[in-house]
Structures are given as C-alpha cells and as structure tokens.
Design goal:
With about 375 residues, the protein is α/β, with parallel strands linked by helices. The protein is built from 13 helices and 14 strands. The N terminus and C terminus are likely disordered.
Length: about 375
C-alpha cells in the first residue's frame, strides 16, 4: 500500500490522505511516470495548448475551459502520477471521463499533446517508431474490452501470433502459447476457433495472447465489462491469481467501483479528463475527496474494504490497561474487528503476525466512526503494519 502525507482525524484517529492535487515526487523505482500529461483533440492542438498555458488564465480547469471555447476537446488534463513496479493501478471513471484516452496515451496508441510519459525512464512521447514497435513487442501487453481475436485462427494460433511478430520459431511459439493457455485455464481448447468459445473463454484467449510475450507492463482497458456478472467475478478471481504469480506492473481501466476495489493496489478516479483522487481502496471508500468520488462508493460496504492497519493508533506508549489477546490482527476487516471489540468495549491491542509483536491499538468507537464516515471526513492507511 502507498501512504499519503497529509493527515486529518476521524473518530479521534489521526489518518493520512493522498490528495490528487499534489504532483508525486519523482520515483526512481517507478515503472510508469506521467507528468503534466495533456491530450487535446482538434486542429493545431499543441500550439493552442501552449498558448493557453502561457496566458494567465489560472489552473488546468481554466486552461481546459479556454481550449473548449476554441472548439478543442481537452480529453486528458494535466495528469501526473507514478505506477510502481509490480503495482496494480486501477483508473476508473464514468464514460467520457478520459480514462481510456489516458491509457492509450501511456501506450502511445494515441499521441499525447504535451507532458511526459516515462516507461522505465524512457519518454514515450519522444520515442521513434522503431523503438516504439520494439517496446510494444517485448515490454508491453495490451488487452481491450473487444477481444480482437482473429476468427480464422485457432486458440493456439491467436495466442502465438505476437510471438510470430517477434520472429520466434514455430516450435518456440507453440511451446510458449501452450504454456500461457494452461496458465489462463484453457488447456484442451487449443484447437478451437473463437466462434466456438464463450465470452469468458474468448477473454481468456485475449489475456493469454497479451501474456505470451511475457510483458513487464500490462495495459487492460475494461477487459471484463462485456461479460455476464458471474463470469466477470470468476475472471476477476483468476486475474488476481495470475497477478499473484506474475507480479506484473498493471494499469487497469474500469468504470466499476466493485471491480476496482477488488483488484487495485491503488485507484485513480477521473472526471472530465482530470484525476480527482488517487488512493488505496480504503482511502477511496473511507475518505472520498469530494461528492463525485463519494457517489462511486456510496453503496460499498465500508467495513469489508478497510482493515485495522488503516485505523489503529500507532503512537507509543500503548495504553497499559488492555486485554492480553482479543484476537485482533492488522489484516482483520473493520466489520470483523468491531464484532470482536464490542464484546469488550475497551482499547484492544492489534497484533502483526509477520513481526510477532503488538503494533498498535484500537477502540470500538474508532471502528464505528470509520463505518459511519461522512464523505468529507478522512480515514486512510496510517502505516504501522
């Protein structure tokens, strides 16, 4: 998890916040870095953007308004963030919020108008065509909502196709394709054609095809949104199992808050081309930055998405009068912890199993306040786990 710097209090608990307004500091460990990225559609977009930014029109919203008045479409507005290696970073928002345009800019399927996009330190915006093709063939995997499978090719042939583009031998292609087909649970269907597969199976072929080149970075644009709810949940579970074993750096686009909360290490929420909040699932649910973010999580059961490590007091010395072992751990959900604590109604120590020590304490009132947190109050990852 990724802690914020600013702090506020909910239910007497000091907590951190990751405001989207702050530009992240440069991270040498970042796999992906975006700095002040703009994508403006329309004629002469770059010089008109530069002119608007040079004039004293105010913040990015004012610049975007000035561009829109000229008939341009500012689809991505002054976006900055880092994605760490091995992180599953979810970008979500309503239709038209700019999330798909953003991921296409990062992969350079759409050319950004201004700013920086670094992948492992290389600026994609200034990258030549030859290097860009090499990057896509060897370092980046992409999966989209519409599977884009070749109807005249079998499952094996579809999965092996990117390897053919790399110049791999037929034997190497077949061996690697069979390996990833097994990884996504489609063994035995290698000879089937896309028309003979269910929607969920076709999506698995799409995932396998993007994994065949063993990319370091994976872009997924609403890959499960066209599927039935049951199949979608099953694929989400399979996706998490894959990520647990592969530890890819992933940028995952969705409009579904439940999907984002289930999958993400961190979530970026977009509105009108801007990122309005970046935070852990707990931060998004318990500490929405504004009413727009709060609306996404209004029906989310908060106690199932917050853990004690986000709420416990870590200031020492700990209270002397606490029960010896009430059974609380840093990974316990608020719901489970509240039920446990209410049996005692007193401060209770929180145990970190990995470190074999008490790392904080919590009171039932803190847990109840977190579950009832208003949109303008704050609770987020406080560390100490």
């Amino acid at each position: 998890m990724h802690d914020g710097d600013a702090t506020m209090s909910v239910g007497g608990v000091e907590v951190g916040k990751s405001p989207a307004a702050e530009t992240p500091a440069a991270d040498t460990r970042a796999a992906i870095t975006c700095r002040h990225l703009w994508k403006v559609f329309g004629e002469h977009a770059r010089p008109r953007l530069e002119k608007a930014r040079a004039e004293p029109v105010g913040d990015s919203a004012a610049v975007a308004e000035a561009l829109a008045a000229q008939g341009l479409v500012p689809a991505v507005r002054d976006v900055s963030f880092d994605v760490s290696r091995g992180e599953l970073f979810v970008v979500m928002g309503l239709s038209g919020s700019g999330k798909s345009t953003l991921v296409r800019c990062i992969s350079n399927l759409v050319q950004g108008t201004s700013g920086e996009i670094l992948i492992d330190g290389e600026n994609v915006l200034g990258m030549g065509r030859k290097r860009l093709i090499e990057l896509r063939r060897h370092k980046i995997g992409m999966v989209f909502q519409h599977f884009g499978l070749f109807p005249h090719m079998t499952v094996l042939e579809n999965v092996a196709f990117p390897l053919k583009m790399q110049g791999k031998t037929a034997r190497a292609r077949k061996e690697r394709a069979a390996e990833v087909i097994e990884l996504v649970g489609l063994s035995g269907r290698e000879g089937a054609y896309p028309r003979e597969l269910s929607g969920g199976q076709r999506q698995r072929v799409g995932l396998a095809r993007s994994l065949s080149v063993n990319p370091d970075i994976w872009f997924l644009d609403e890959p499960f949104s066209a599927l039935d709810p049951l199949i979608r949940r099953q694929l989400q579970d399979e996706f998490l199992k894959l990520q647990a074993g592969l530890a890819k750096t992933i940028v995952f686009i969705t409009h579904d808050i439940a999907e984002a909360l289930k999958l993400a290490d961190r979530i970026a929420i977009m509105k009108d081309g801007e990122i309005v909040q970046i935070g852990t699932p707990t931060e998004i649910v318990l500490n929405p930055a504004n009413a727009y973010v709060a609306e996404f999580s209004r029906d989310v059961p908060k106690g199932r998405h917050a853990h004690l490590r986000h709420l416990m007091h870590t200031g020492r010395p700990f209270p002397a009068e606490m029960p010896d072992d009430p059974g609380l751990t840093t990974e316990m959900t608020v719901e489970a912890a509240l039920a446990q604590c209410l049996r005692r109604r007193e401060n209770a120590p929180v145990w970190n199993a990995a470190r074999s020590e008490i790392v904080g304490y919590v009171h039932p009132g803190d847990l109840a306040a977190a579950l009832d947190a208003a949109p303008d109050s704050g609770t987020t990852d406080r560390g100490g786990s």
